[in-house]
């Protein structure tokens, strides 16, 4: 035992009373599935609940999470109506109600729903400890909301942000079958303020439960409900949140907040006396353990010194280490042997006990994943997008994907940034913001002794968010930047987004930025800074104005998780920026910034005089300056260059070492470096360096010799091999497959009719018999159909007079007509009223089909072919036609993914059509002729080709702006499309002839368009940011109406599911998928939090959508909104349109299906009729008329 204590150390179990710590909160963050509330000062997010929440006497199925420290049971009003004015008009659970702020990039609000056993068990423990006399505490659902590092809003808020004064607290709502509880958690060390500024007065925060407005007696009006307040207007009351308790644990408060069916009042926990909390701390006798000779299978002990505390009367126990059950955070247990290729080619990989890390080689600097040569200048490329209001302008200036180029001379810290295509309406006003490029200057700042610039610490992959608050106008601008690392050309890639309002700087004015200093605070994954910047505007009239802005920023990154890597970095470093130059070139629409950057100590002292640290050394721009004693120094050419340091020349590694890249590769020289590329037919092996022959998947490439995909299947077997096999219902060797005529084989009963189909067959008993077609018996005892039961009931009620059935009209008795098979006749008449109407296969009247007495409407035969032979699907799954495929477009091609039921057969995905040099946007499919239709926006056109391949046909190439959506009416043989530049919707025949404009007004950005030919409707959406909407009309353009207008952002994608009769859309602005019944207008949200959808299609149980951010095709269950599958194309680029191919069309016809409805030119159906229309280019033979049925 003594030996064990000597080698392992002394483990002391100290029993003492301690406040709650942040580590003792419920787990939170992205890693446990939390969603993040948008940054702001009054942000709100709706959360639909998976289980009912009981609050006071009410039951609630949704809550609203708010920045200001509460969740509400109804959508909250603006903060000015409740802050300092409680009780509010809406129900509220206030964990820490005040004017809070998360805009500085350091504060976040996380939230989720959780049903995991470990969380529910912990919830039950808190409740049981607070209510020890209660039995059957069995929570089944929890809502966890965490406010992390939130700051108070306002001028005082900016002060505390700089001083790092923030609060972290948590609310857990636990739901059971008939009760709900609230658990409030306040970590003592993380509760650093207790009041916020409201109406310029410092007011204490409030904690409690507000019922909101409730109905008055006899439902006359409403009255203010109960407000159960926990805190008082005193500092002591606020401090008590983290120090006292009603659950036996300091900082933890538990309340019963609702019960059903009876509720009396909010009930607090009963245990106000603090229960002793046991804390485990390890005191190690030796800080550095002796070297171990244990094998890899033996446990490796790691020790951390903990300063022992001195609690009163501590109880000290000596225990064995094996008795401790400690969960240790694990970064990555992989090793360099399989991950070395993830390091830079200029880095070494080093194994650790629980993972690996990359370290740049001598002469290079970075984080190991990205390494660049010391002294070598660095170039950066990127894009800048923005939506900025200038001055008091009511409309923003918007720009997208403007080029950003930057160049940094790293041996003197001088950075140059240029952004192109900046309009003159905003260019002058951006001059005060060299901060747009500050991260570049910080990343490659000139390093003072013992200090390191950004790139040498975190490399080139990080995100940066900055908030700028201008004085005195309080304009705000948010800057978001994504640094994506070094590309194959050794350029650092940057993406920038700007959003907000900035003060106006007049045309012709110049701006001068004063030198400034900024302190950067470093941690393992977050870097923060804040400062005040002063600038001077020299007006065109010669006057001078001085302004300033407050600046806060956060930089997030992922570092190597081993302490020694970051141990040499000071916790605080100061960035000094001077020699700042700004200019807007109105002639070329360029804004330019330049600045000199140094990184060093936060303490003032004698500046370094060595030229290497001042930047005044005269070394070549491709050289590193090496300091010596005093002011002596030497210049050394950077790696990849040669010379005396004063003048350096690029080394051509490809010429000097021809074999440097190895076999089957080509070497390309670059300044200071070189690049290896595998020759055609070869690819890099797992090490990222060796070129090996690339196996060819002929199935995916489409270079196999199997029969058409409707008849055969190509299966990749590896090593460029594949096999062909015929699909069920076909025979042959897979390269040539013929349909099997099952009717010739006598598969059906002798009293049944056999219908052969491609790849299958159907059997149907003859009139007078019933059965499934395989077994038919005389019809006297067969089960009656719905129509026959309906008819029998009507006739029985007529004779008895006891039952009166009257669907409509209201007079007399209606007896339905049934055909020989027992199905409803398409035409139904009411003998007494003399009226007739059309019905569908269920006997329901087709709206608009009822004729006047004495006339009969023309009804469509709605007989449906018998079902395909095969297993009967489950009731909640729509039957899927065999041979269906997903089509989706990328720039220059259209790919397809075979579908097996609801599953994508990913390994059989391949390219159907190559259109080099084109940008294919919309994709559609004609199931009758098996044709693919697509639009190209490079040279605007609409084309088509057969699914089996062959020559493409250019349908429309004139009078087009940007055709972004195509819809096919396969029944009427018409094509519809949207044009987002010409702002109109057009129709034509499927061959592109007989064009006609349906709509050219009240359209801004029409994109998706959907045809419902069976019922005669046309749907489309307009993603106009100032007024997005979803509309509907008849396929002839009649009865145009807005279906959805509220709660939309960018409704890019639209689809109609004929099975459920639901219209669904994916919104890239709200990041939601929603559906609506177009007739009842009932709207339902399926999911939220998706990335950037472009197009969507419905098939079977799933919705499939393309996503720009993920470069993927995503499958989602349309019933519960859960993502079920993802397909990532081999070539990662934006995915655009998506469509479904069918081997045969769904059953059905419309009024234009037969003989073009008798029209001379365009036959355009609508609900209850059709319209004959002429093309815009008319001739004398065209006749227009309307037909109603």
From TrEMBL:
Where in the sequence is the signal peptide annotated? 1-19
Q: Name one GO cellular component term.
A: plasma membrane
Source species taxonomy: Eukaryota, Metazoa, Chordata, Craniata, Vertebrata
Q: Which GO terms describe its biological process?
A: canonical Wnt signaling pathway; cell-matrix adhesion; epithelial cell differentiation
Domain called NIDO: residue spans:
95-260
User: Entry's InterPro entries?
Assistant: 6-blade_b-propeller_TolB-like, cEGF, Cueball_EGF_LRP_Nidogen, EGF, EGF-like_Ca-bd_dom, EGF-type_Asp/Asn_hydroxyl_site, EGF_Ca-bd_CS, G2_nidogen/fibulin_G2F
The identity of this protein, by name, is Nidogen 1b
Q: Provide the EGF-like domain boundaries.
A: 608-649, 650-692, 695-738, 739-775
